[in-house]
Design goal:
With 407 residues, this protein is an alpha+beta fold. The chain is 58% helix and 17% strand. The strands form three sheets. A five-stranded mixed beta sheet has the order 5-7-8-10-9, with helices on one face. The chain has a four-stranded antiparallel beta sheet with strand order 2-1-4-3, with helices on one face.
Length: 407
């Protein structure tokens, strides 16, 4: 190969790498913009239309327009030309938009009109990210509305309960009937709280699925393309820059996975209970260097999805307490399957504390155990705490006669 050809090949590779870096930066800027809390949709869209043109091959003549929910956000000098590409933003039936990129002047033909193949893929990725952002905003609005009405109902029920208690003190002759009425109100309050928690879990699961299916997979594809590009650039002297970009991409993939786990651990839906616990033990070992051993006793039974999620969250919270408050280095999980239920004990070698009274809500809240106790009671279970300063902590979730367990 002549020196001129080598120079041209290097220039072409350098140009391709520069274009890929611009596209990666565009995805990164878009992700930061979409994840900025407290910013309105209109403000977010106006920022996007200012930043997106920089990712295209000819940014100086690139304009963009985003249409959504009857509103249009466009570059200051936007005008529709015949050199354009579009991608649909389909959020839900009856809720759709479009993102459009235009060149204001003619440019050499490429993969699709004057646009590169990578620019077509980039536009589709941006459309998916914007779609996910808009879905999240809609979910948040629905959740806020549901929470508002639930809180109003809870407040109303609480007022009714207060009034019932006042009448109970005044009307001793009607004590039994008033007591039954109070129990009904309490059951309704717990039912409303459980429905709210179920709705939040569902929304978190959907958001986590979107993060995994779209952003996570998109970043993985970028990493694969960078590996291919790195193999092609062995003689170009760009290996270090490409490796840095690969490291940034891997960090973004890791962040996305951690965020997905914090929102909703998908493994609890995809694996059986024993496998999900083992995954949780491995996760705490990798992230916090907490050695977790799991032991099983008895014949395993089938758990309902609600109970599996409740137990997984409870064990995760107990392990988190062991690391965060107890500074533990080892923990053990004993799953004892009973004829009509099960019993789970989480024991650690941490700092320990003075065991609170299990009937004392204030003490349990102080040690982060009140939520676990409430979850267990929904399945007719109970919480047992055994701890002393310097002797570690042992917490048992006893579901000896629980509902949601099948042999």
């Amino acid at each position: 190969m002549t020196k001129s050809r080598k120079t041209n090949a290097k220039d072409n590779l350098r140009w391709q790498l520069g274009e890929r870096v611009k596209e990666l930066k565009a995805l990164h800027r878009t992700a930061l913009t979409l994840n900025r809390p407290g910013r309105s949709v209109a403000r977010t869209m106006r920022i996007l239309v200012m930043n997106i043109p920089r990712a295209w091959q000819y940014p100086e003549i690139t304009v963009v327009k985003i249409s959504w929910a009857g509103e249009t956000y466009a570059s200051p000098d936007y005008k529709k030309t015949r050199w354009n590409q579009t991608a649909d933003i389909k959020v839900a039936p009856g809720q759709a938009g479009v993102i459009e990129i235009c060149y204001l002047e003619a440019r050499p033909r490429a993969f699709r009109g004057p646009f590169l193949k990578e620019e077509v893929l980039l536009l589709n990725s941006l459309a998916v990210m914007i779609k996910t952002y808009l879905q999240n905003r809609i979910y948040q609005e629905h959740q806020a509305t549901a929470k508002y009405f639930l809180e109003r109902q809870i407040k109303k029920r609480t007022l009714d309960l207060t009034q019932a208690n006042r009448e109970l003190r005044l009307e001793l002759a009607l004590g039994r009937r008033r007591e039954r009425q109070i129990k009904i109100y309490q059951g309704q309050l717990k039912s409303l709280a459980q429905k709210l928690a179920t709705a939040e879990d569902r929304e978190r699961r959907e958001i986590a699925t979107d993060l995994h299916d779209h952003i996570g997979q998109g970043l993985a594809m970028i990493n694969l393309k960078l590996q291919t590009l790195q193999g092609n650039s062995v003689f170009s002297g760009q290996e270090r820059d490409i490796e840095e970009i690969k490291n940034l991409t891997r960090q973004a993939v890791k962040y996305t996975r951690n965020l997905t786990f914090e929102l909703s651990p998908l493994v609890v839906y995809e694996l059986d209970f024993g496998a999900a616990l083992q995954w949780l033990a491995d996760h705490f070992g990798q992230k916090y260097e907490l050695q977790v051993e799991i032991h099983n006793a008895g014949r395993p039974s089938s758990l309902s999805e609600d109970m599996r999620i409740m137990l997984f969250k409870s064990v995760r919270e107990l392990l988190t307490n062991a690391v965060k408050h107890g500074k533990a280095s080892r923990a053990g999980i004993l799953v004892k399957w009973l004829p009509q239920g099960l019993e789970i004990t989480v024991k650690d070698n941490g700092a320990g504390f003075v065991s609170p009274e299990c009937g004392s809500q204030t003490a349990l809240k102080g040690f982060g155990l009140f939520n676990i106790k409430e979850r267990a009671e929904q399945y007719k279970g109970r919480l047992e705490v055994d701890s002393r300063p310097g002797k570690g902590c042992s917490v048992t979730i006893n579901l000896a006669t629980a509902t949601g367990i099948k042999a």
